[in-house]
Amino acid sequence: MIDQTTIDTLVPDLVALRRDIHAHPELAYREHRTARIVAEALRAMGLDVTTGIGGTGVVGTLRLGSGPSLGLRADMDALPIQEESGVAHASTHDGVFHGCGHDGHTVMLLGAARHLATHGGFAGTIHFIFQPAEEGHGGADAMIRDGLFERFPCDRVFALHNWPDLPAGAIRTRAGPIMASADKFQIVIHGRGGHAALPHQTPDALLAAADLVQQLNTIVSRRVPATESAVLSVTKVAGGQSHNVLPATCEIIGTVRTFAPAIQDRIEQSLRGICEGVARSTETRIDVLYDRYYPATINDPVAARAALDAARLVCSDVAEAPSPAFTSEDFSFMLRARPGAYVWLGQNTSEHDAPLHHPSYDFNDDVMKMGISFFVALARLELAPS
Predict the structure, then answer these.
(1) Burial call 77-87: b when 16+ CB within 10 Å, e when fewer
(2) How far is the C-alpha of 382 from the C-alpha of 310, rounded, in Å?
(3) Is 253 strand, coil or helix?
(4) Among 263, 298, 341, 372, which is disulfide-ready with 111 (CB 3.0 to 4.6 Å)?
(5) Does pLDDT of 287 surpass 70?
(6) CB atoms within 10 A of CB 1
(7) DSSP state string for 152-214
(8) What pLDDT is recorded for position 1?
(9) In which order are the strands placed within the sheet that holds 230-238?
(10) Which SS3 state, helix, strand or coil, does residue 241 take?
């Protein structure tokens, strides 16, 4: 059992810390101030602390007796967005903003570490993993390549992310896919350029781009089985500067989200094939850059059940998530390396209903206690004394 009163006593200071971190956000691999705050807090709890992992990552290790080892992860980086929340603790850095709640994730994990360091109730080793650069820069992969799991072995690893689509305090996860892979493509079409009144003298890069956009949007509906889930979105088309000039080049940018590597393969092959066909038919040259930068986040079934079991010890609104989300997460790299699960913590109320990555978003401090309680319950369930 968890003494909620002892967690209640932590919350006011943690809320103040969360708002301080929110006011001083830092982008990927620049989380120097945040990492220093985390490291100092962990040392003050008596944990063994290692810094500089994968750039600015921090790991605090808590050992109590003999038993399995557990990894609990929080992300620390902010987004390159101008904040428009209007809160008193708004970002003091122009164009940088904690618009995804990583400030809340960091502080909830610190709260859990403090409670477990003070009250114990487990047998084994807990590695509290504070990760840089989740927002599109692969900080989890950087920590792994820097020897994260060799230096800090984990039998299982878990992460918690706030989720505005769920009621405040609700907890959801699921076995198997929970977040999509994230691919990005850049297509550059090379014509020759020329006078707009003489289009017969130059291959038309813009016309090729128009053809491509239409064909790319048929890939999911016509080349992916209806039983599979995938999204392909063209997000940018750029070319030309004048009404009377045919541009020499045009660029198309977009993203692909899937849950299965075989579907990733099918979509990339189809995209490249379409580009080759349009290049031949328009007499242009087309270059394709296709980057699979985040794999799908796939929960281990046993770990997902354990997360739900732990959640039921502290939360009345617990259920299996009915479907995965098409957003992506670099915790996927950790789940490829170790079994574990990624968990959603609801934060939606009438005052906190902005979606993630929205300029008016702010982490809901009222769910902080639930996040801390979940981590504590999970640690004690995973590392129950024999």
Answers:
(1) bbbebebebee
(2) 9
(3) strand
(4) 372
(5) yes
(6) 8
(7) S--SEEEEEEEEEEEETT-EEE-SEEEE--EEEEEEEEE---EETT-GGGS--HHHHHHHHHH
(8) 62
(9) 230-238, 249-258, 182-190, 285-294
(10) coil
Q: How far is CA 80 from CA 57, 95, 136, 139, 320, in A?
A: 19, 5, 11, 16, 33
Q: Token digits for 343? A: 């968990």
Under a CB-based contact definition with an 8 Å cutoff, are residues 70 and 109 in contact? no
Rounded (10°) CA dihedral 302, 304, 307, 309: -60
Tally of residues, the chain? 386
DSSP-assigned beta bridge partners for residue 297: 179
One-letter amino acid for residue 143 of the chain? M
Q: What is the distance between the alpha carbons of residues 223 and 277, in angstroms, rounded to a whole number?
A: 16
Listed as own residue / partner, the contacts of 213-219 with beta carbons closer than 8 Å and 24 or more positions apart are 213/237, 213/252, 215/274, 215/278, 216/252, 216/254, 216/271, 216/274, 219/267, 219/270, 219/271, 219/274
Contact 134, 330 (CB under 8 A): yes
How far is residue 264's CA from residue 249's CA, in Å, rounded to a whole number? 27
Torsion of CA 124, 173, 357, 39, to 10 degrees: 0
Residue 62: in which H helix or E strand, if any?
Answer: strand 57-64
What is the per-residue pLDDT across 28-51, written as a single tens digit (0 to 9) for each? 999 999 999 999 999 999 999 999
Which pLDDT band, with edges at 50, 70 and 90, does 350 fall under? confident
Helices (H), the chain: 4-23, 32-44, 102-119, 139-145, 148-151, 205-216, 219-223, 261-282, 301-314, 331-337, 368-382
Residues 352 and 164 sit within 8 Å (Cβ to Cβ): yes
The span from the CA of 36 to the CA of 262, in Å, is 42
Domains and CATH numbers, the chain: 4-179+296-382 (3.40.630.10), 182-294 (3.30.70.360)
**Residues 153-185 pLDDT 10s:** 999 999 999 999 999 999 999 999 999 999 999
Among candidates 107, 115, 145, which has minimal Cα distance to 47?
A: 115
